[in-house]
Amino acid sequence: MNPDIATLFLNPDRNLGMELVRATEAAAIRAVPFIGRGDKLAADGAAVDAMRTFLGTVNFDGVVVIGEGEKDHAPMLFNGEHVGNGNGPAADIAVDPIDGTSLTAAGRQNALSMIAVADRGSMLDASTVFYMRKIATGAEGIGVVDIRKPIGENIRALAKAKGKPVSEITVAVLDRPRHVELVEEIRAAGAGTRMLLDGDVAGSINAAMYGTRVDMCAGIGGSPEGVVTACAMKALGGMIQTILHPLDDDQRQRGLDAGLKFDHVYDADGLVASENTYFVATGVTDGALVAGVRRLGPIIRTESIVLRSHSGTIRRVVADHQASKWLDNTAVD
Fold first, then answer.
1. Within its chain, how far is the Cα of 202 from the centroid?
2. Over the stretch 34-83, which tens digit does the pLDDT of each residue have?
3. What's the rounded Cα separation, in Å, for the pair 63 and 90?
4. What is the pTM of this model?
5. Which of 75, 83, 193, 309 could be cross-linked to 55 through a Cys-Cys bond (beta carbons 3.0 to 4.6 Å apart)?
6. C-alpha to C-alpha distance for 309 and 327, rounded to whole angstroms
7. Other C-beta atoms lying within 10 Å of the C-beta of residue 121
8. Structural contact between residues 197 and 108, judged by C-beta atoms closer than 8 angstroms
9. How far is residue 202's CA from residue 229's CA, in Å, rounded to a whole number?
């Protein structure tokens, strides 16, 4: 038997992700009353409060590396805040109580509540440079796709590696004005696009998972989301490459002062040095990755995905919660 496999069987350990999922479930459930109500701040506030409460019960010592912002502007889940009960492993944690607050407020699809965790000190702090260029694929893209090459060349290389025609390749791209030229190049290469209103984390995960309709995710998106995606990619065996994309010279200088590298390709290991990562997400509204929260009579049903790099496990968790427990706050208390 493979020594690594033997170790998994002889020394079973707790899956922290199965505890963290309670926090994303809580955030998603608390956001439901605000779906389609046009108030993204109220939705985010309810989700933050619920996630913070549940994280306080988790058996770990987490430090928020990617959170709601600095302490002066975020009363909870701010960068540098300690979460968990203080026992168990020391970890970095990235939180987004609602990835897609605008989607939630508008009642659109693909809003998620998500958490990523890795060993303490392993997550790249790219907070001084908010955007980065990204490209993500499944395992077939490793050693084949290169973010420094034109998108058309990468599409053709990936199609060859996957054994399918270019016309069957689909690239997920955030629907933003900055991506007009990228979309034109993708279509000129003969591939199709899947335009995302928000959420390139889910787009990248779908590109790395088997059985989805997305082969690649590309474009410019948030640096924090790139780090979160790297945690998921390590569990999926997928590929992500990023290059920091400063908006001006001042931002570039702040990045240099923080020790960041420009014109440098950060891969999954560069974004998250740990090989022990977790990614957990619960659907707020329906999406391609997970279904949104549903009220079924006396039951509230949630669907979540739990990824763990150590075991290479993908778990889908469908949970039924007694609605009465949430209405009287018993579940949160």
1. 6
2. 999 999 999 999 999 999 999 999 988 999 998 876 654 556 788 888 99
3. 8
4. 0.89
5. 83
6. 36
7. 12
8. yes
9. 8
